Amino acid sequence: MKVTADTNVLVRAVVRDDLKQANAAARMLTNAELVAVTLPCLCEFVWVLLRVYQYTSADAAASIRALMAVSSVQVNRPAVEAGLLMLEAGGDFADGVIAFEGHWLGGERFVSFDKKAVALLIEQGREAELLR
After folding, report:
1. pLDDT in tens, 71-88
2. What angle is formed at CA 62 by the lines to CA 72 and CA 22, rounded to 5 degrees?
3. Which member of 33, 40, 66, 128 has the greatest number of CB atoms within 10 A?
4. How far is it, in rounded angstroms, from Cα 68 to Cα 77?
5. Distance in angstroms (rounded) separating the CA atoms of residues 37 and 34
6. Alpha carbon distance 34, 114 (integer Å)
7. Percentage helix, strand, coil, to 5, in the chain?
8. What residues form DSSP beta bridges with 112?
9. Residues 11-69: pLDDT tens digits?
10. Residues 6+ apart with CB under 8 A from 125
């Protein structure tokens, strides 16, 4: 079976706050031939872990890395690594993903009103501009 996982499936598998759903999620991750995990799903996943479950950025990053280590899980690895780079630098996972995908689509410069995101991207050697 080849599936696309929703955010709530990943959350249940990692957080295990509902044992029945956690076990179902774990079985799916273990038994599926392929588990497609989209970028929007991972952005939501990180947001839920940080905001709802009070995970640290390091713990959220470790959770993503653990998911990526599952042989059946398929992600856009370069985009996820860009998100993790931002998250582990103290920024938002989604900003790293957005900057990466924008560049992939042909954007030469990330523009934002988010001072922290712009500063972190510039520190990483990326083109970024703070709009005022």
Report:
1. 999 999 999 999 999 999
2. 60
3. 128
4. 8
5. 10
6. 36
7. 60, 10, 30
8. 130
9. 999 999 999 999 999 999 999 999 999 999 999 999 999 999 999 999 999 999 999 99
10. none
